[in-house]
Amino acid sequence: MDDFGIWWLTPLILALMVGLICPTTGALLITQRRILLANLMAHSVLPGLVLALAFELDPIIGGLLSGLLGALLAEQLNHRFKGREEGAMNTVLAGFTAFGVLLVPLLQARIDLEALLFGDMLAGNGSDVIRTLIAAAALLLLLLSRYQDLVFLGVDPEGAIAARRPVMQIRFITILITALVVISAITAVGVVLVIALLCAPVLVNLDRSESLRVLMLRSAGTGVLLSSGGLMLAILLDLPPGPLIGVLCLVLLPFWRR
Amino acid sequence: MIPIFMTRRGFVSALVSVPRQDQGLHQLGVGIASAIPSLSVRGVSYDYDNCSAIKSVDLDLHPGTLTALVGPNGAGKSTLLHLIQGRLRANQGTIESNGSIALMPQRASIDWSFPITVTQMVDLGRLRTRNRGQKLSAQQLLNQVGLNGLGARRLDRLSGGQQQRVLLARALMQQTSILLLDEPCSAIDPPTREHLLTVMRQQAESGQTLLVSSHDWGSALDSYDRVVVLDGTVLACGTPDEVRQKLTDMTCMMGSHCCG
Predict the structure, then answer these.
(1) Is B160 left (phi over 0), alpha (psi -120 to 50) or beta?
(2) What's the CA gap between A152 and B105, in Å, rounded?
(3) For helices A9-31 and A35-54, what crossing angle results, to 10°?
């Protein structure tokens, strides 16, 4: 994969994959009203990533464990601060990000923190593409095996619990896949900007989609256009692609008409 | 008991012009009230955070009856329905049922902005059903609740009353012998309420047992076979006329007691 003759091909594949899987996952999270948890996880993977890179381990393992730890801590604090969950979750988000930033000087690790936070798509390699493929496969498996339950859980969560659907299992798997998607998107857009690709393509398609499936397909299409368009523009303008994709996501919302 | 029930049914049929059993889709049991209750609640109590929600509730529901569960806000109506459905576990007492139970939830528990069509929403009822008998189609049920032609429309494009009918159709899809309805007639116009009551009546006539929580008092109670008044515990239970008489007696007793 690293031996592609055309230097921009790997970043383009990465952009297309990230544009595909981030909005598809975002459609699940937004319809289940769990997007804040996703943003928390995106930031919570940072300490694990820094540790994994410092000790030359696979970033997936470090990021996944760290992301799950953040989600678990947030879940615990949500019980303690019932009714004020958003405050607790944002504190965990900031705390994990800060811890990740502090680990770099503490471990004296040679890590490009800016690339982790805001992405460095042009430096993307075959391993990054493989990570997106793993995340895409896990997401596809969940959608194929549990689509009806995901719809039920989104439209009537209490009813899904009462009907004894495997709600806890589905929620845990969704968290796991969110962590995988976030980790695979870090080279492209970074932990801070990934939330834009999770949200914006979904928001512009939410009101005109007649099913979750259609919403996912449309959001993925919009996501692919945003990420590949952002990459092209970045190459043309000689700007970093991650932040440019983030700005494109923002620009999309105010100009969007139903 | 049975003669009163039959009289009540005759009255209600005349009032709301209910079609006879030829429109009933369910073949779940006998068409008249049976002596054996399909649901029996004995001494049930439930506490939320050491605060009593309901205390020592006794209740029998018979097949083919339409029962109203009335009471003020916070009386424990939804709690009792969730206990019967099995979503909550009683701190004390027993609940026995002779069949499967479906619950039509309150409006607030549904995310109405979720991207889903009316037909897809009704079909979610299949995920809950364990019935291996005749499969109902969403189209059949939408016709029954008066929403024919709206199956392809998005759920959030419907009016509040139409959305309530979709929830009823989804509950009917489960083909259970007991159907609990949590405030189905709240915030809807009188014609829609009458239509919902007609469908509920049809279901009762086909043998289903229905328990409907409601804020309605007065003449609206005449649409039901039996009425249970709940305010933490069962204050009165019987036909609408019996309940009115009991409540009047209680008010008189409290009045004479207060006045000395």
Answers:
(1) alpha
(2) 14
(3) 140
Chain A positions touching B154 (Cβ under 8 A) are 210
Q: Tell me which of 1.10.10.2910, 1.10.3470.10, 1.10.530.10, 3.40.50.2000 is the CATH number of domain A9-252.
A: 1.10.3470.10
Cα–Cα distance measured from residue B96 to residue B38, given in angstroms and rounded to the nearest whole number: 8
Q: What pLDDT does residue A136 have?
A: 97
- Whether residues A158 and B87 touch (CB distance < 8 A) is answered with yes
Of B109, B124, B154, nearest to A210 by CB-CB distance is B154
Note whether B109 contacts A: Cβ–Cβ < 8 A.
yes
Q: For residue A166, what is the nearest residue in chain B, using CA coordinates? A: B127
Interface residue of B49, B122, B123, B124 to substitute, partner A, most A CBs within 10 Å: B124
* pLDDT tens digit sequence for B55-97: 999 999 999 999 999 988 888 999 999 999 988 899 999 999 9
Q: How many CB pairs under 8 A join A and B?
A: 63
Would residue A66 be called left, alpha or beta, if left means φ above 0 and alpha means ψ between -120 and 50 degrees? alpha
Q: Do A158 and B154 touch (CB under 8 A)?
A: no
- Cβ <8 Å between B115 and A214: yes
**pLDDT category, A8, cuts 50, 70, 90?**
confident
Q: Is B253 buried (19+), middle (13-18) or exposed (0-12) by CB count in 10 A?
A: exposed
pLDDT value, residue B10 = 30
The domains found in chain B, sorted by start residue, are 2-99+177-259 (3.40.50.300)
pLDDT at residue B257 above 50?
A: no
Cα–Cα dist A94/B39, whole Å: 52
CB < 8 Å to B109, chain A: 156-159
Find chain A residues with C-beta within 8 A of B114's C-beta. Answer: 31, 151, 154-155, 212
Which candidate, B61, B54, B68, B56, places its Cα nearest to that of B40?
B61
CB B35 within 8 A of CB B214: no
Cα angle: B94, vertex B100, B101; to 5 degrees:
75
Nearest by CB to B105, from A148, A159, A165: name it.
A159
pLDDT for B41: 94
Instruction: Report the range of poorest mean pLDDT among A39-48, B15-24, B126-135.
Output: B15-24
Does B131 reach chain A within 8 Å, measured CB to CB? no
Nearest to B28, CA basis, from B207, B225, B223, B243: B207
Cβ contacts of A223-226, under 8 Å, gap ≥ 24: A223/A18, A223/A19, A223/A20, A223/A22, A223/A23, A223/A24, A223/A197, A224/A16, A224/A19, A224/A20, A225/A19, A226/A19, A226/A197, A226/A200, A226/A201, A226/A252
* Mean pLDDT within B1-10: 30
